[in-house]
Design a protein that fits this description.
Distance between the termini: 35 Å
Structural class: mainly alpha
Radius of gyration: 19 Å
InterPro entries: ATPase_put
Number of strands: 0
Strand content: under 5%
Keywords: Membrane, Transmembrane, Transmembrane helix
Order of helices and strands: HH
Length: about 70
């Protein structure tokens, strides 16, 4: 039996799990940031969603930073 033949699908599965968990973590980071921004905007009662937009942008930057750190 050739052991290399059995290692290749496991590596593909490991990569899939790694990248899908990273995507899920990024979605959670962006979702929590947006939710907190909405919560603060409703609490302060702003007409324009300042905190929602600010925390949305910061959470996207944070999610990208998190992804880059995980890759390196």
């Amino acid at each position: 039996m050739n052991p290399e033949k059995y290692q290749k699908p496991k590596k593909k599965l490991d990569d899939f799990i790694r990248y899908s968990s990273l995507a899920f973590e990024m979605i959670v980071i962006m979702g929590v940031g947006t939710w907190l921004g909405t919560l603060i905007d409703h609490w302060i009662e702003f007409k324009f969603p300042v905190f929602t937009l600010a925390l949305m942008i910061l959470s996207v930057i944070g999610a990208i930073y998190h992804a880059v750190r995980k890759f390196l």
